[in-house]
Amino acid sequence: MDAFPSEFADLLNKRGQRLLSNPPRLDVFRKKRATPIVVFDDVIDRRVANACIALLDRAIYPVIRRMETPIPREWISSMKKNYTDKLLKTVRVKTATLNSRKSFALDAARSIGLSQMMRSESFRVFAESIVGMPVEQGHWGRQVICYEQGDYSGPHNDHHPESAEARNGFVDLHIMFSNDAVRSQQLVYEDHGFLSASHEVSGHSGIAVYRLPFWHYTTPLLGRPGREKEARRWLLLGSFDFDPPPKKPLW
Question: Is the CA virtual torsion 33, 35, 38, 39 positive or negative?
Fold first, then answer.
């Protein structure tokens, strides 16, 4: 495989394609108080996942940039009362967006068909079909993220109250690939008011669909002993607004 397919559907195996042709009605997107997230494993064949990793390593890894938001020490020293601590989102990853013609990674993404696949109709339809609500067709956010040894994304909820389109809910679609050097990384998310649910996301491939906002984070990536410097988990992210935007919050 010398490029990503032009349609996302062609990346999927038979089980994954059935999710498009006959999408399930999932209770997590319909029941109140259920956290609206689902993770699908084994919907992209291992051979295909390995080919995707090779493409990302060759074309995207050289152009992505480190993004770090460490914990400022003053968040502790500025406290005046016990138990008034607040932790905003902290993160350490490598990443690039594909949303602008000025994106430094866009040419590389186009050269391997990644940009085209993440703009394909079946990429959008997959998110729409799983959540069970129509999403905007003209434009959506695209981002590539790479987690290496110790990289993580701290607790956050992805609420955007200043956005008329997203303030009442939106959809994230995560396409995930891990190489053989990755030992573990957990996606942790809220369940009935507690950060008590988790999913192992270090498999060779996986797809997660979120209806945001809700609280979640990813634990530091752990590589296999002796192979920590090789460990990489790739995340292809699409963010979709609903069409029309919900008039009331969906949570």
Answer: negative
State the amino acid at position 108 in one-letter form: A
- The per-residue pLDDT for 33 is 86
Tokens of 181: 């050097």
Q: What is the DSSP string of 136-163?
A: -SS--EEEEEEE-TT-EEEEE----TT-
Q: Which whole number is the average pLDDT over 159-178?
A: 97
In one letter, which amino acid is 239? S
CA 143 – CA 94 distance, rounded (Å): 11
How far apart CA 16 and CA 24 sit, in angstroms, is 12
> Within a 10 A sphere around the Cβ of 88, how many other Cβ atoms?
11
Residues 6+ apart with CB under 8 A from 1: 48, 51, 52, 55
The confidence score (pLDDT) of residue 86 equals 87
- Could you tell me where the DSSP H helices lie in the chain? 14-21, 46-55, 74-77, 106-111, 114-117, 121-131
The pLDDT assigned to 24 comes to: 92
Tell me the CATH class for 8-26+44-64+90-241. Answer: mainly beta
Residues 6+ apart with CB under 8 A from 80: none
Cα–Cα distances in Å, from 220 out to 40, 51, 170? 21, 25, 26
Is 27 a residue whose pLDDT tops 90?
Answer: yes
Range 121-147 average pLDDT? 96
Q: Are 211 and 29 in contact (CB under 8 A)?
A: yes
